[in-house]
């Protein structure tokens, strides 16, 4: 376990260094969500919102940020697989989950920064208290981090090359985000619906934020525990089926 921890620390540090060395890419990754936040919510800009109103108007966008960044990190693991690192790692050190956990840590660090900027922008645009918003956004991120990887890890259980994984990621992201909004508006699904929280990262994120605003644990726990347990199982089963090398098209 000590050796495993040192390897996770080593690769997390390396991935952070690579990200910081590519300043342009990092600024684009951090700045793009803020730009889209302002673009998509321009009609509500500089109008005061309550935290409850913020849940319905802004949290679907926050869910997109968390989900899309997590899926991209899963795609980067697929790229490492294509380059042979996962297979090499099995023969040399402990197991390939080190790469997955290291990428998850990098993703968490990046999202903490992005959500801090979202909180700052929202405090100005919607006249909300910055610290009250920030700790709730960070709290949501911590609560959904494991379930979010449950959505993405099944992509690594197929022998797909990176190009195919990227295409599936794009389709999945659009389908989940647009489908969640369309179906939710059509059926008027409650934020605390357990099935919706398992199937849709949008409803999972909104349910977590709603809890941190209202404190209604009784209505929140069934949805959150369903998502946490269900998606954790999906992630574990996907990891057990992890393909160390892509063979698609061979």
Low-confidence stretches: none
H/E element order:
HHHHHHHHHHH
Ends: how far apart? 36 Å
Number of strands: 0
Q: What structural class should be given to the helix and strand makeup?
A: mainly alpha
Describe the structure.
- The protein is mainly α.
- It is built from eleven helices and no strands.
- Helix 3 (51-57) packs antiparallel against helix 10 (201-214).
- The longest helix has 29 residues, at 97-125.
- The chain starts with a helix and ends in a 10-residue tail after the last helix.
- The mean pLDDT is 84.
What layout of secondary structure does this protein have?
Layout: H1 2-21, H2 23-40, H3 51-57, H4 59-82, H5 85-92, H6 97-125, H7 130-152, H8 162-187, H9 194-199, H10 201-214, H11 217-240
Features:
250 residues, mainly alpha, 80% helix, globular
Short description:
80% of the residues lie in helices and 0% in strands. It has eleven helices and no strands.
């Amino acid at each position: 376990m000590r050796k495993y921890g040192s390897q996770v620390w080593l690769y997390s540090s390396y991935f952070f260094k690579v990200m910081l060395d590519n300043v342009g890419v990092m600024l684009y990754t951090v700045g793009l969500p803020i730009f889209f936040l302002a673009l998509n919510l321009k009609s509500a800009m500089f109008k005061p919102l309550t935290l409850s109103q913020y849940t319905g108007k802004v949290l679907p966008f926050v869910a997109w940020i968390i989900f899309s960044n997590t899926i991209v990190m899963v795609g980067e693991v697929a790229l490492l697989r294509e380059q042979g690192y996962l297979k090499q790692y099995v023969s040399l050190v402990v197991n390939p989950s080190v790469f997955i956990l290291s990428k998850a840590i990098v993703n968490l660090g990046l999202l903490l920064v992005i959500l801090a900027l979202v909180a700052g922008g929202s405090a100005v645009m919607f006249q909300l208290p910055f610290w009250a918003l920030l700790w709730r956004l960070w709290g949501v991120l911590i609560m959904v981090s494991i379930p979010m990887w449950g959505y993405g890890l099944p992509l690594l259980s197929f022998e797909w090359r990176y190009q195919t994984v990227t295409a599936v990621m794009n389709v999945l992201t659009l389908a989940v985000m647009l489908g969640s909004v369309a179906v939710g508006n059509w059926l008027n699904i409650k934020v605390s619906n357990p099935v919706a929280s398992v199937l849709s990262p949008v409803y999972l994120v909104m349910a977590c934020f709603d809890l941190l605003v209202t404190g209604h644990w009784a209505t929140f726990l069934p949805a959150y525990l369903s998502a946490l347990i269900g998606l954790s199982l999906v992630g574990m089963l996907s990891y057990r089926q992890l393909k160390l090398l892509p063979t698609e098209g061979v």
